[in-house]
Amino acid sequence: MPTIREIAKRAGVSIATVSNVITGAVPVSPALRERVEQAIVELDYHPNDIARSLKMNRTRLLGMVISDITNPFFPQLVRGAEDVAVENDYLLITFNSDDRVERERKIFSVLRSRRVDGVLLVVAPDQGDSSHLGNLLRSGIPIVCLDRLPAGFEVDSVSVDNRAAAKECVEHLFSVGRRRVAIITGPPTLQTARERLEGYRLGLARAGVPYDEQLVLEGDFRADSGYELGRRALSLSERPDALFVSNNTMAMGVLRAVEDLKLRCPEDVAIALFDDLPFLYAFRPHLTAVSQPAYAIGKKGVELLLDRIEGRVTKTGPIHVTLKTELIIRESTAGRA
After folding, report:
1. pLDDT 10s digits, 127-157
2. Which of 9, 33, 108, 263 is within CB 3.0–4.6 Å of 268 for a Cys-Cys bond?
3. Nearest-CA neighbor of 318 among 154, 105, 163, 186?
4. From CA 101, how far away is CA 106, in angstroms rounded?
5. CATH number of the domain that 281 lies in?
């Protein structure tokens, strides 16, 4: 493996100049920088990042923990985060918690052993023991929570207003003539699911429609639960004429249930969902959806995390960034004649 000494000899400069080009610690003239960079390419030199991190007490590694990589919302989140990380010469390593706190806890242990500079976190459903979050914060590693906020911890976050977005979507269903609107919601241990359910209730109240527990079906944000609960809702003796589905993967299951029951959308049942994705245009009818800025959430999350790591934030308390959603109205909620 080539050394800095060999790079310096090839470029005809001092070892200190090579070091300054690699670390950026001291400005180097463009002509010298070009010679050093050419020598680095010719000798296929790669810095020893482990040694550098020990010396600088900085690894330039960021950890990211998401809940379910099979949910199409999260790859967009990761892409936004990764783009900003790479632009700032950080490496992003991503883990999948599978919505299990125990797995999340093990991932945190790995991230601490790898000496990451900061963590982006989509929290797993709260099971009453989130001590691993507190331990990480006390170790001096900053956390920015994305999409979901943890119970009992004040940390930086980037999310959307789930209540307001869900309320707007439910109000839309009533505005196009629907009168019996059911919700397929997520697990109550998740803050996002609770807030979207609250938004549903606010939408009912705004329309003057009483809350009916029979029309509230609790899923787990996975496609199979969407299918089972979709069949259950649409098999009620008083069938709902609209379904508000709390995320995209459950909506895919609901569409399968509608097809199996030989119902038509929107003629028999209107469908609206939380989360919009480009591939939803492959389904007919095209689906009305609350569009979350997933890429922007990941992007802003890394920007906020780097501000903490690099000391650009003067505020000592947590920073909460709330990004806007958009209700995109399509064929699946067409009004009745």
Report:
1. 667 788 888 888 889 999 999 988 777 899 9
2. 263
3. 154
4. 9
5. 3.40.50.2300
